[in-house]
Write a structure and sequence with these properties.
The chain is of the alpha/beta class. The protein has twelve helices and 18 strands. The strands form four sheets. It has a six-stranded mixed β-sheet with strand order 3-2-1-4-5-6, sandwiched between helices. Strands 13-12-11-15-14 form a five-stranded mixed β-sheet, sandwiched between helices.
């Protein structure tokens, strides 16, 4: 993962003297691109060239791209000044000496710049010039929790950080997750007092905002769902919201929306995941069936249709892993079900399962797009055509198999897994 969400950093070069350092950064960071001035670099020397430094930096900055500029610190500051607006939204910006001897985070210190500076310092074997008071004196940034954690409301952070820096105690309450998950809050334990005015709360409960409380939600909840085919996304979203509200649980603690692989192409499941800002993940029926002894509402009808005794509860438990607990039993709407399980630790690497897959249909000429059978055309993106490969289309692995119109002589279709076969409309729950 890159320093600013999933967006790879851009290493911006002004001249050839910084090329060696830029390449070290590109190799060390793994996902970084090297950008160089078109007047100074051939296209094969860098990943991307630009004509005007100022407009290029501003465009990358406004797109949310982390910037690593090999130049004097004043250059990116002056060039980016016209587009600086909201510090809560700005991506990391760092200035690096061309020889790698200095690493200075300029903007976005608590939005990835300080962490990125530390990584660069390790790559270049230099000490980053981190100046934010929270990092230096508290050993952490309260507005930048690690992966697997969400800050409920950033509003109290500034005042409580200032109080901590002034020596005030804080009350640290950990209600959810494991102590080892909260190890990053360790520097605050020494300042913890049960009677302190300010509080830091770790919980998966929904909590009303308070100016004197910072609330962190560990992502330890798996939301399992099932639904009939072509269920209205609004129905599934409403069911999930209702289940969370009735049990007082925080949406921010949900790590993933999970279901059976039969539902990998179901629009309602993906709409719910997008609504919650989490990934959708899917499990084969045999994986869910292993959770049968832990189900609160096993169903023979569901087993006969899907190969497992419960979709919503089974998926939630499978995703939350060993030692997890079913905290919201299967709840129903007219065409959908939902259940929630709590993991005892924040799962390393996410909640497991697999994302929605793709089926590639490749037609090898002679031929044209119109010769494909109707089913591949319905699930295709606009084709890429050429002299050898006439069309490439993608669709979910949970879509029906291509029709017989795509003959072996005209092309070949990747066979979808068994879980992608057309599924029962009313029993996959």
């Amino acid at each position: 993962m890159s320093a600013h969400g999933s967006t790879p950093p851009a290493v911006v070069l002004l001249g050839p003297s910084g090329l060696t350092t830029a390449r070290r950064l590109g190799d060390g960071l793994g996902d970084a691109e090297v950008h160089g001035a078109a007047a100074r670099f051939a296209p094969d020397e860098v990943d991307r060239t630009f004509d005007d430094l100022g407009s290029h930096l501003r465009a990358l900055f406004q797109a949310g791209r982390p910037l690593i500029v090999l130049a004097a610190a004043g250059i990116p500051i002056r060039l980016l000044a016209p587009v600086l607006a909201d510090k809560a939204e700005e991506p990391p910006v760092l200035a690096i000496a061309e020889d790698g001897s200095a690493v200075v985070p300029l903007l976005g210190g608590h939005h990835g710049a300080n962490d990125l500076a530390r990584r660069i310092g390790e790559i270049l074997d230099t000490v980053p010039a981190i100046t934010t008071a929270g990092d230096l004196r508290l050993g952490l940034a309260l507005d930048q929790p690690p992966p697997g954690w969400r800050l409920a409301d950033p509003a109290p952070v500034k005042a409580i950080t200032a109080a901590l820096l002034a020596g005030a105690p804080v009350r640290l309450d950990i209600e959810a997750g494991h102590d080892k998950d909260a190890a990053w809050l360790g520097p605050l334990r020494e300042a913890s007092s049960p009677h302190a005015e300010h509080r830091i709360l770790v919980t998966d409960r929904r909590v009303e905002p308070s100016a004197k409380t910072i609330v962190f939600h560990p992502q330890t909840l798996a939301l399992g769902v099932g639904c009939e085919r072509d269920t209205d996304p609004a129905e599934l979203i409403d069911l999930a919201e209702r289940a969370l509200a009735e049990h007082g649980l925080a949406k921010a603690s949900i790590a993933a929306v999970v279901s059976i692989a039969l539902k990998a192409a179901e629009p309602a499941v993906h709409a719910l995941a997008k609504h919650l800002g989490v990934p959708a993940r899917f499990f084969e029926a045999e994986v869910l069936e292993k959770e049968a002894p832990r189900l609160a509402n096993p169903s023979d009808l569901v087993f006969n249709a899907t190969g497992c005794h419960g979709v919503a509860e089974g998926a939630a438990l499978a995703a939350a892993g060993d030692g997890s607990a079913l905290i919201v039993e299967k709840t129903k709407s007219r065409r959908a079900t939902a259940a929630l399980a709590r993991a005892n630790v924040i799962p390393a690497g996410g909640m497991g399962g697999r994302p929605q897959g793709h089926l590639a249909i490749v037609g090898i000429g002679p031929g044209q797009d119109g010769w494909r059978s109707p089913r591949p055309r319905r699930c295709s993106t606009p084709p890429i055509t050429g002299s050898a490969i006439r069309a490439i289309s993608t669709c979910s692995t949970s879509s029906p198999r291509p029709g017989p119109g795509l003959s072996p002589r005209r092309g070949a279709a990747a066979r979808a897994p068994r879980s992608s076969l057309p599924h029962p409309a009313k029993t996959s729950r």
